[in-house]
Amino acid sequence: MSLWVVRIFFLALCTLGGFAVSQVRPEWLEAGRLWTLIGFGFGGILIALDEMLKGFSLRAFSAATFGLLLGALVAAMFDHSGVFLWMDKDDEVTRGLLRMGLFIAFGYIGMIMAMRSNKEDFSLIIPYVRFTRENRPDNLLMLDTSVIIDGRIADLIDARFLEGIVVVPRFVLKELQLIADSADPLRRARGRRGLDMLARLQRNRANEVKIHEAEVAEEKETDAKLLQLAKSLGATLYTNDHNLGKVAELQSVKYLNLNELAAALKPVILPGEVFPLKVIREGKDRGQGVGYLSDGTLVVVNNAQKHIGQQIEVQVISLLQSSTGTMVFADPKVTPGTPGGPPA
Prior knowledge:
Rossmann fold; 344 residues; 11 strands; alpha/beta; 16% strand; six-stranded mixed sheet
């Protein structure tokens, strides 16, 4: 059910409630329209307040309430400490204003301090207590923009290598929409691919996909919001951003970089191994041809220039490990009876 449907229903109830109040006493019957308008205005104010506080999470509300109670307790201690004994006992108005200011000031300070703190700070006030959620899912998969656009996460979920609830923050969805509406054709294509991947994830019945509405107002950058939200939910962050992964590691946030996973799962190629390869272009040296494995590994094939555009069998002769990855050197696999090969 849409949130606005609930709001309109609530506004109608408030309007009817205002009219019902006018029927309670006979002298209020003539002011029925006024009471109906009051009920409508009361409901409208509450809806406007709800819209203003849409980024105010339950955690922030509970923290603010705790801070308000703590501030009121401190203010009450000051009030009963005799700090106002110097005042004239008959001057109740001034004494009341000072007491009200004291409670408002400490209540405000308590609320701000509680909302700025994290859940671990409460353990200093209430030892051995941790605010954890009951019935929390075993596994929360939080996706950032890069891993959604990449699309391999959808393949892993379809193959049931990853199980749990897929969490996509609302601010990540907004970022995808901005990329999809970009004037740059390349960025626009990437954004649309990301939205298509999200639709694909939602069609997968094995894993539930939830759009998390939290805005993390205290942070401005998307990466900082992701880390804060992942830490508060106890979720695992999935990303392709190397720097984001390192920052997550420093902040003790669980993360998985799909590029690192792909590197760990690369097939092991040994000298002497034979496999099919499509030669796509010339190499640097004379007569060489170049092709690529499915994982992007560069394969240099000697005497394969004449096979450009063809798929041939090649045999590995050596491997070269560099900072950019592994480079494979191979020769065309020549079978007996073929031109240039040994006699049959």
